Structures are given as C-alpha cells and as structure tokens.
Amino acid sequence: MSETNNVYVAYQGNSYLFGGNAPYVEEMYENYLADPTSVPDTWRAYFDALQNVPAADGSDSRDVPHMPVINAFAERAKAGVTQVVIATGADSEMGRKRVSTQQLIAAYRNVGQRWADLDPLKRTERPHIPELDPAFYGFTDADLETVFNISNTFFGKESMSLRELLNALRETYCGTLGVEFMHTSDQAEKRWWQQKLESIRSKASFTAEKKKHILDRLTAAEGLERYLHTKYVGQKRFSLEGGESFIAAMDELIQQAGAKGVQEIVIGMAHRGRLNVLVNALGKMPADLFAEFDHTAPEELPAGDVKYHQGFSSDVSTPGGPVHLSLAFNPSHLEIVNPVVEGSVRARMDRRNDPTGSQVLPVLVHGDAAFGGQGVNQETLALAQTRGYTTGGTVHIIINNQIGFTTSDPRDMRSSAFCTDIVKMVEAPVLHVNGDDPEAVVLATQLALEYRMEFRQDVVVDITCFRKLGHNEQDTPSLTQPLMYKKIAAHPGTRKLYADKLAVQGLGETLGDEMAKAYRAALDAGKHTVDPVLTNFKSKYAVDWSPYLGKKWTDAGDTAIPLTEWKRLAEKITTIPATVTPHQLVKKVYDDRAAMGRGDVNVDWGMGEHMAFASLVASGYPVRLSGEDCGRGTFTHRHAVIHDQKREKFDEGTYIPLQNVAENQAPFVVIDSILSEEAVLAYEYGYASNDPNTLVIWEAQFGDFANGAQVVIDQFIASGEVKWGRVNGITLMLPHGYEGQGPEHSSARLERFMQLAADTNMQIVQPTTASQIFHVLRRQMVRNLRKPLVIMTPKSLLRNKDATSPLSEFTKGSFQTVIPEQNAEVVKKADKVKRVIACSGKVYYDLVKQREAKGADDVAIIRVEQLYPFPHKAFGAELKRFPNATDIVWCQDEPQNQGAWFFVQHYIHENMLDGQKLGYAGRAASASPAVGYAHLHQDQQKALIEAAFSKLKGFILTK
Hints:
Elements: E1 2-4, E2 7-11, H1 22-34, H2 41-50, H3 67-78, E3 84-87, H4 92-111, E4 147-149, E5 159-161, H5 162-173, E6 177-180, H6 187-198, H7 208-231, H8 245-259, E7 264-269, H9 274-280, H10 286-293, E8 312-318, E9 321-327, H11 337-352, E10 360-367, H12 368-373, H13 375-383, E11 395-400, E12 430-434, H14 438-455, E13 459-464, H15 482-490, H16 494-504, H17 511-524, H18 563-574, H19 584-598, H20 605-618, E14 623-627, E15 642-643, E16 654-655, E17 668-672, H21 678-688, E18 695-699, H22 710-717, H23 720-724, E19 731-735, H24 750-756, E20 763-765, H25 770-782, E21 789-793, H26 808-811, E22 818-819, H27 824-828, E23 835-839, H28 843-854, E24 859-864, E25 866-868, H29 872-880, E26 887-895, H30 901-911, E27 917-923, H31 934-948, E28 957-958
Parallel strand pairs: 7-9, 7-10, 10-11, 11-13, 12-13, 14-17, 14-18, 18-19, 19-21, 20-21, 23-24, 23-26, 26-27
Antiparallel strand pairs: 1-2, 2-3, 4-5, 6-12, 8-9, 15-16, 20-25, 22-24, 27-28
GO molecular function, one term: oxoglutarate dehydrogenase (succinyl-transferring) activity
Cofactor: thiamine diphosphate
Domain Transketolase-like pyrimidine-binding: 603-800
C-alpha cells in the first residue's frame, strides 16, 4: 500500500480497470464533476484529493483537466499495476467490491450491446464477453446477495444486491434492444441515454390499443408483400418480408415526429421495402402501384424509371397536425440519394427560416452492407455538423438483413463489429434492435427521434432482421446461403409471432387473422392503407414549379442592368469597412474592382462574377456557392470573403461584401466545403431541386475533381428530368484549360458532359469574357427556365486582359451563345475569307495571336460559347457571313478523342454550305487528358495552333 493525500490505494492484478477501461475512469470523473454525490464514497475521496491542485485560472472550478486522471492510471498500468482499489482502513475488501460493481456497470454500458439478443434467426451463440461476467472482477456466487450502492444509475434504487444489479443490467443492455452511446464525448448525452434506458430497463410499456396498432402495421407490411408475390409472380419488387417491423418503425416515426412539431419529413432509401413504404407509410394508392405492375400506368416522361426507384409525396395527419412526406427519387446507386435528401432538407429549412431543423426531418433508410460499404456515407456524415450543411440531425434506419447481397459471406461483409461503426466518426448513438420484437423496434424509434429533437445530432436505428426471398424475386439465395435459408424457411414470420404473443396476453386469438383479411380486402379494392391521408392539404411552404415547365432554352432573359444600378452595386461590393484590415493583395484586388465599377478600366472575370451575384441578391434571388475553395477561389480570383488581418479570434473577423448589397437583399452564402465532391455536389443538387429561386452553384477546385462526383452527374443532373420529371437549376463551375499543369488539372472532361447531353437536359457553356460569365449567371435565374448549367470556367483567362470587358457590355446585351468574328478588317472583307476556324474556350486567344503573326486576314475565327444545346441558328448565321470560305476547322486544346470535337462535328456539318470541308486541329487522341512535361505541352500547343491555319489533314468531312 502507498499513501496519497490520506487516501489508501491498493493494487491488484487482472482488472477491466486498465487498458480498455479508460472510458470508465473518465466517465466516473465526468459524473463526479457533474455531481460529486453520484460516485461511490471511495472514488469521491480520490477525486476530492485531485481538487487540491489549484485550477489554472486560480478559480474554485471543479473542472480540472481529465487527462491527469487518465494518465495517472496509465502510468500505474505501465508499472505493472493493473488494478486500483480505493479504500480507507480495514474496509479495503468491501471497497474493492464496490469499485468492481462500478466497473461492471461501465462494462454493460460500453459493450453490453455485443451480447444483446439481436438475431431473429439465432444462427450463432452469443459471444463470450469476459467484461460482462461478474467473475471477471473477482465476484463469486457468494456475492450475489451482497447489497451495493448504485447511486450513479437510474434503476430507481440507491442500492441493489449484485444479483438484482446484474439482472437489471442484462435487461437494459443485453435484451432485444442494445444501445451504443458511450463513445460520445458529451456527458449530458451519455447521462440522457442512461436515464432513458435504465429507468425502463429498455422495455416498452404500451397500451393494448398501441399493441394492436403495431400488429396492424405488421399485417400491412406482410400483407402487401404476399399479395404482390402471388399476383405478380417473379416480378422484381425487392421484398421486405423478414423486415416487416421496419414499417411499424416508419409509422411511429411519422406520427411521433408530427406530435413534436415536425411538419416535413424527407425520406431517402434504396430498393428494399420501398414499395411497402410507398403504400403503407406514405399512402400511395395500391391501385396505382398495381397499374405499374400491369404496365397500364400512363407514360408521361421521355424515359421514365422502374417502380422501385420512384419518388412520392403525400400529406398525412398526425397528433401535431399535417405532416408532408417526401420520398426522394433514387437510382440504383444505393446510398447516393443520402446527400441529395440532406440538401433538400436544408433548402426546406432555409425556406421556413428553421435553422435548427425543428420543422423538417431527414430520414435515411439503409441496407446493412451498403451503409458500411459505400463511401458516400462517410462523406455525408462528415457534412452533418458543418455550418453550411447541417440539417439538425438525421434519423438513420438500417434494414439489416445480415447478408448484404445474396452471395455475401458474412465474414467478408466488413471489417468492423457492426455495419454501423462508421457513424462513430460523428459520435452518433446506435440502437441495435431485434426485428422479431416489434415493440422494441417501436421503442427504439421513439428514443431515436426524441434524441434527435433534443440534441440535433444523427442517430441510428439498426433493425436486425432477415430477407425471406433473394436479393430480388428472381434470385435463389439458398444456392449460396443454404444454412441461413433453412433457418428462414422455418421462421413463422414476425407478424405471426407477434399476433400469437398478443393472443397470449388476451388481446384476441383471431385478431391477427381478422386484420390480415381486412387488409387483403383493402388491397383488392385498391384503397388507401394509411389512414388518414390528406388529399386536399397544401402547405404555404410548397414550391410552385409550374412557371418553369415547358419553357424554351432560346429565351435569353433580360440580363443587362442599368448603369446607375451597376455603379451603386459596384460601390457596395468594393467598400471595405474601416474596422476590417484586408491583406494588401486583397486590398489591391478591391481597389482595382472599384475602378472597374466606375468604368475607369475594363472589368475582369472576378468583378463580372461578383456583379452577377450582387445584382441577383439585390433583386431577391438568393445565391448559394459551395466547393472546396470558394471563398477565396482556387486561383485567388474571387475573394468573396475578406479576412481581417488583425482579428484576434478564430471565429471572428471576416467580412463578406456580397452580404451587404442592400437593406432587404436576398441571402448570399459562400461555403468552403469539406474535401468532398460526390456528397457535396449531391447535396447541392438536392438543395436546387427544392428551391428554383436560388442560384445554387457547386465549384470544383479543379474541373477534373468532378470525376469524384460522376454518379451524381450521370444519375441525377443529366437524367433526373427525363426519368423522374425533376426540374433542377443547379450550376456547376468547373475550371478547365490546358496550361501545362499535367494530366490531372487540365480537363474538366468536357466530352463526358457532351456525351450526356440530350433532350435539352442541360446547358454546357465555355465563356471567354467577363461579360459572358456575368450574363450567363444572371440568365440562369432571370429567365423562367431551370436546367442544370455546366460552366467550363477558365484559369489563365481570370487575369488575361484580353478576356476583360468594357462596362457597356454589362449594361447592354445578353449572353452570346456564339461570339462572331471580332476583327473589323476581316468582317469588312468577308467575301475574301477562305477559312473559318470555330473554337471554344481560351484557345481562341492563341488563334488570334497566330493570325496576327501570320497576317492571315482571310481567316475568320468564331467562338462557340454554348456547346449544348448547340446554337444552330446563331452559328449558321455566322457561317453564312463568309460564303466563299471553303474550309471549316474545329480547333480545340483537348485531345481528339476528348473535348467537344466528336459531338460538335455533326452540328457544324449541319450548318455548312455546299462544297465546304470540315477538318480538325488539336491534340492527337490520347489515353491521358494532358501530358505532364512542360516542354511537350508547349510543342503540342504550338503544333495545334499551326495546324488550324494549315492545309486540312486526316479526317475531313465534306458537305
């Protein structure tokens, strides 16, 4: 023994106290700081001794650093001391046992869920976890009746026998509901969970009516699946059979959320159980679903999509009033819908001025394998608490089939104990629950929602169930999972088990059968199975998309602004308050912009962009700009956020001029996002899908970073309208241009967007002047057309004086889809022109210099600023200005198999005059977007510019 501050400390071996028990020590210390009487006397004496160390600030604060406590025990462990008993005098043995009871409690709170009864199939024995065995701490059967103080628990008693305590812990943490929450660093949250679970021992206490309602929802879930299985044999529907408790969870979530003041719920989920949710949670008419199976549903869209990808919305009645439900459209890329839902929720929150998410709730439904396996989940979780993306906490529900895809071997599904372990990165609690205990599922849902509304954090309900049929209804899972499917074949079904349970409780022996018959009758009649669905309710926050439907892209809109308004806005956005000290380089940028605003010098790209934003927010159009480097701009051209060089606090000292344009202006939001492309772009797409009045922009740090978001581009941006009828006005800014910087930062893969372009589904532009970026950004909002806008933005042109524009081009005119020949002498001698070079992007400026060097005034150069929809009328008119031209050349920086060449050649050919020939000038086809050697880049650039003026070679297309 050794004496420390009059507290005797004895050491023994083999204890849970050290090594993995640092959380226990820290939790005990947290409890002590919150309430010294909540810990055993021996621990309180020890911690009191620590308080003799003066606080760093000289105050009487009890909250000394935690690490000295943890480190003290760690040092003892290194020295071979593996157990601590704190006691006084002869009471050391009892003191040891008291400490051991606290260790036992901590163990169950920390790892009890690993021993919980979660598997409905009971395929394996529950694992042996030594820390949950009293013998691990030296207890014997003789100790079971010994009474210990347990004042730091919520079991309703100050003391319990070891036997009572053990039973209480097992009931609370190892029953059909096992909860992980001790990984959170917030002591208030941990205490909240302990109180909620231990006070009821994780057992629901429902009325008879509530139990009947749960059975009704299980009956509906099972009834729909069996109905479809017999009526539409072999057709894919991704059955929910085996996971019927999920419908009871969704029903409870909707009703309780409404009771707590939620007015909108946005749901994202993949295929499993989707049709069941549509009918039994959102209230889709069964007759409408059957029409889709029968192929008699009206075909209203150019492409359409399969029924288990379809979205839906409805309004249902809840104890708190009407709740609007939205199920997001989803492609087959599993979890990719999740950030789309989050963006949609944020737009709804902003529209309601609901910064905490009190009125709007995101709900994401996952499969077990996809949740842990799809990287977009990590990206989406990383957004959860960031300022520009938080949605006040998401309720995640996992339909855990324990199998993933049909052929998965459970040993190869993941590297973690649970599929939910990924959420520990945001310290989200997880409620693991046995799907065969629907009351526990409903309880878990209640607790999860209550936690979300209290703490505004993500939370997960992991429903462990099974999948009765294969991955789809054409699959035979027993081919690869014979043992599992023998168990499943013998399982009577969750509904039957629960109906039998209620019958034993005296709630009616025929109740289950009666409900099944009633539900079948409702399906036969094609009636609603959710009561009540509000068919005539319309929220004042609903968005009217009708003004944007059926419009033509050729409407340019009035994008010029009056000179007086230009100067007023320019002064506003170039005035920096005296209280802000900008960096000298930033000050010069703003001084130069002030001169541009007065008309003293031409306007550069950054000023043109800023004036577009300023004029929009002044007119009532919000602007939301996000990306990895948006505030400053990757190429330091933007400086939308001015950082005070004399600021003293991290969270102070920034000034955003665009937020100070007018007294009642619309919001301007600029967000430096996390280092993510896929989730952030999907989030912004979701935002734009619910707010046509906001200019929503995602800017890639480099254009090729869009590669990381290709699923979003393919499945949502390019095809969302033709598949689902979802109109969207998102704008992508993708820096693009060959500057000798190597393969990774040259190309935004223009060819990919051109390949996806059809059905006037998007706008693809490559502006080359400051006035063009001004007009195209304004055009995106002021005309009543909402189509995705893809802008290939420049890099070197941001500071190229040739790309600047006079003030007059902003106060007059509009976006030019084609910029005609600008050389007055060439235009004057149009009948002498023998060659027309068509191009897009910065290569135009290289061509102009080459023409001047050669004195080739018989060559006209046309810029195609909008590549899709191709401006046939404008381009054809320019070709007709040069009727004697025999050669038409398309010139581009990109390799021949990339860029716009393979797509525009057909458009150009359509507008050529008889006898004209079309050729190509550019880099040769290449597997890489660009070379990595600077000298080789220069050689290639020189050669392609020269080729534009040389005799046509290679592939030549003749009219």
